[in-house]
């Protein structure tokens, strides 16, 4: 009898001890997985590549561990805007890979699609790009480290109105961010005393921009405000603008900086010269952190030509994830993790950043840039800066 | 008035690019009765070859264009012998679709593996970079060049099929292969030559049209619908039909985008439906070249 009791007690002690050992083991040497959904193939593959480079640069500078936990990134390819596929991939990451964080998302619809999943699984989702203001309203677990169309457009429209420009045509891709850009521009520019004489919404799939150029020409505007998603479409638009003689006719070209993102500049060539943009990051940004980032990119990938806004979006996003892991001690608690980074401010290669506690979007400096040729290479030269710009579009721009 | 003129010129330029690529498909479909869904893939392959020749080897544009057409034709001829020859004739439609769509997937994956997923460009020579003024309208020189090449293609094909021995034999072989063979026409060679012609036209269109239909691995699948639409509207096998269809669709699409941009591709497909209602076999079915 006593023997059995003693045996049971011993057993219990042994089990508890080893259990405790196991638990403490996981506490200081776990691997925390971050699932990254982005385009790694297809026409927008460069975007995925820049995300990956941003993450790898950050990890190379700051190590792969946070408080003993190893951070591992798992990449999933989503070649185009496809919400159903995005949801399926997110589910796979959460259920099979057991990721603690979701990240990436180049397109708005893909980011929106995972809202119910991150709420149910209680995991944070750090958006590296998708720029429609409304996204962060859909779940309290979204945090965004990129920019929004409102954020870039409001200072641009104010600047244009101050320049004395009166008549403008807006030409945007017909989808969420494009319409955000159009609304933001119209509201701000008309408040500043200007007039939007025509608003063109171009199908997302357009490859032939000649008809839109004709329309711009016929409207008699002095300048255009254009937004298209970075990549092949933008390239076609900017080329058509110069090829159809609008540039020669003296019409000024303004837009958010996606239009002249660094990887596209060589292909754009002189068609890009003279485009004025507002954006949160330029490769030519003058700061030590930016120079370190570019040097690291050169060391890791042989060239820093690809470094652009989506690279720093991912770089700063990775920083946020590291801080979340630190704040939660590596334990899975999405809401606590998001709570911990609200109001967080830090210095990034693009300038000072702060996560707005309400919109969970970064408040940042927006720069006015002119595209020009310097030492034979095209670059976006910053000519003015507008500090502390929030996401003006949060809750519908009110 | 100026606006209407502008729309017509832009539409014609767009239509001509559609025409150059689609007419090859019309030739294989109308004359050889092969639904070649890999047609877009052949155009894409030529585009990639030209891009590599111009950027990787530093060849001038003209050499890259001619080289790409030749390499594509030579590379696809073994396919004619090994694969396409087995599926000629209208009795094999299902196997044609299965074989050629399979071939398309293989080519898409192959291009993706070899050249990567990013957009490739074919740098234009300086002569094609500026703008050309047509009346009050200025259009990119490259588009004017494409319109010229399209017009030359129409005339060249018409002459080849209507005015040469080759054309006469080919039309005979299409109408009645057995009788043509009995008369001593070597139908197999003829088919091979026609296949090469179709592929060559696809290749030329792929290279010339790269500014408007940008080169990426999914090109083959993305644009085949456009090419099939042109052939369906024009009538399979008809050169003038393809030209008329491509121009009509190009102008309708351009006008739609100009007038109501947020309707997107609506006008293109609406025109397609209406035309096919009125002419179910296309504009020029069974008549002339």
UniProtKB/TrEMBL annotation, chain A:
Domain (Leucine-binding protein): residue spans on this chain: 31-371
Keywords, ordered alphabetically: Amino-acid transport, Signal, Transport
Region (Disordered): 378-398
Signal sequence residues: 1-29
Top-rank taxon, per record: Bacteria
Transmembrane found in the keyword field: no
A Pfam family assignment: Peripla_BP_6
Recorded family membership: Belongs to the leucine-binding protein family.
Protein name, UniProt field: Branched-chain amino acid transport system substrate-binding protein
Lineage: Bacteria, Pseudomonadati, Pseudomonadota, Alphaproteobacteria, Rhodospirillales
Automatic annotation (TrEMBL), chain B:
Subcellular location: Cell membrane
Signal peptide: none
Keyword Heme: no
Top-level taxonomic group: Bacteria
Topological category with respect to the lipid bilayer: Multi-pass membrane protein
InterPro entries recorded: ABC_transp_permease (IPR001851), BCAA_transport_permease (IPR052157)
Keyword annotations: Amino-acid transport, Cell membrane, Membrane, Transmembrane, Transmembrane helix, Transport
Regions crossing the membrane: 6-27, 34-53, 59-77, 97-115, 141-161, 190-208, 220-252, 259-279
Assigned protein family: Belongs to the binding-protein-dependent transport system permease family. LivHM subfamily.
Protein name: Branched-chain amino acid transport system permease protein
